[in-house]
Amino acid sequence: QVQLVESGGGLVQPGGALRLSCTASGRIFVINTMGWYRQVPGKQRELVATITSGGTTNYGDSVKGRFTISGDNAKNTVYLQMDSPNPEDTAVYYCNANLRSTSYYSPRDYWGQGTQVTVSS
Fold first, then answer.
1. How far is CA 25 from the centre of its chain?
2. What is the CA radius of gyration of the chain?
3. 47 and 34 in contact (C-beta within 8 Å)?
4. DSSP secondary structure, 38-58, as one string
5. 3-class SS at 112?
6. Residue 99 to residues 13, 43, 94: CA-CA distances in angstroms?
7. Separation between Cα atoms, residue 121 and residue 112, nearest integer Å
8. In DSSP terms, which residues pair with 38 in a beta bridge?
9. 14 φ/ψ angles, rounded to the nearest 5 degrees
10. Do the Cβ atoms of 114 and 91 come closer than 8 Å?
11. Distance (Å, rounded) from C-alpha 106 to C-alpha 32?
């Protein structure tokens, strides 16, 4: 079993800041990549940011320059610092991990349950 648990979501005003956290736990052998995706009604889930265990980051175009992803390999944790959010950033944010568990030979994708982020005055 592998679990991804997100925290830090909630209501934030435009121009404010929010910090999301995600911790992976369970039967983990090695983590390749962790990241954040988001989804709103009527749209497919889209990339927010990812980071590899080596520190390589990748950002979706809509959040470049505003959001920052970071990670702590020792804690199996990733963070998303959301600066200057706007109402268009309102979505359910899902944590993702591409990892190899102790149960399978090949890496697989795992998802958290999601945390709601609402940007509103």
1. 15
2. 14
3. no
4. EE-TTS--EEEEEEETT--EE
5. coil
6. 34, 26, 16
7. 28
8. 46, 93
9. -55, 135
10. no
11. 11
- Rounded CA-CA distance 82/12 in Å is 10
**How far is the CA of 28 from the CAs of 13, 110, 119, in angstroms?**
37, 11, 34
For residue 111, what are its two tokens? 């998802």
The pair of structure tokens assigned to 62 is 């809509």
User: Would you list the DSSP string of 4-41?
Assistant: EEEE--EEE-TT-EEEEEEEEEESEEEEEEEEEEEE-T
Residue-by-residue pLDDT tens, the chain, 121 positions: 899 999 999 999 999 999 999 999 999 999 999 999 999 999 999 999 999 999 999 999 999 999 999 999 999 999 999 999 999 999 999 999 999 999 989 999 999 999 999 999 9
Question: Residue ranges of the alpha helices (H) in 67-119?
Answer: none
